[in-house]
Amino acid sequence: MRIRNKPWADEFFEENNHIILQDPFSYKGNWKEAFTDKKPLHLEIGSGKGQFVAGMAANFPEANFIGIERVKSVMVGALKKVKAAEVSNAVLVNEDAKDLRDMFSESEIDHLYLNFSDPWPKTKHAKRRLTYESFLEQYKEILKDGGKITMKTDNRGLFEYSLASFSQFGMVIEDVTLDLHELEEEKNVMTEYEEKFAEKGQPIYRCIVINIK
Ligand code: SAM
């Protein structure tokens, strides 16, 4: 549901401003302040309706999770999921991920997740892909040396493009799987899109990439 004017969403966000941060840029270099304890920071870009970030926070209490999603009406769903999970190690940010360096200081992030990112298949839209060079430049800076990016997608074209983009950028591909669900990994937390594609029997591609400074 897309609603242009959403005062009810603003109210809902305000009531839950300990989960959905009103001024995320003010936490730069000091993200532990957004959580009850200092733990490794994991960041998901394009969280959608939040199933992954809520599920990861519940399954991995040893880390703190931040989910960024730019569409407000979608973020409402993410806030509901994180609230329902009753976790204290997940917060949400309703912003576009284009200015991550204004939100995180150098090497502040331990792990970054890109789940079912929009593929933008037309070459003229390549700059919008979350694995385009300008995004990788930001990831490289905010991730620790040796920090990781995990990417999952159903889109073969985006997957191949991203593998090339990561390696041209000097990042190290640690692991590639062309059928994640065949591995039956117990700790794989599924996203909404992942469930939808898996139900249709489509393979899920995943890569894990290491950041080298
Ligand atoms: N990750 C979710 C999943 O797997 O179910 C949602 C996938 S959906 C295809 C991609 C999401 O990324 C959309 O909700 C979109 O608004 C968000 N998104 C795309 N580009 C973004 C950006 N630059 N900053 C923040 N969110 C973005």
Automatic annotation (TrEMBL):
Reactions the enzyme catalyzes: guanosine(46) in tRNA + S-adenosyl-L-methionine = N(7)-methylguanosine(46) in tRNA + S-adenosyl-L-homocysteine
Binding site for S-adenosyl-L-methionine: 44, 69, 96, 118
Residue positions binding substrate: 122, 154, 191-194
SUPFAM superfamilies: S-adenosyl-L-methionine-dependent methyltransferases
UniProt keyword annotation of tRNA processing present: yes
EC number, as in UniProt: 2.1.1.33
Protein name: tRNA (guanine-N(7)-)-methyltransferase
Lineage: Bacteria, Bacillati, Bacillota, Bacilli, Bacillales
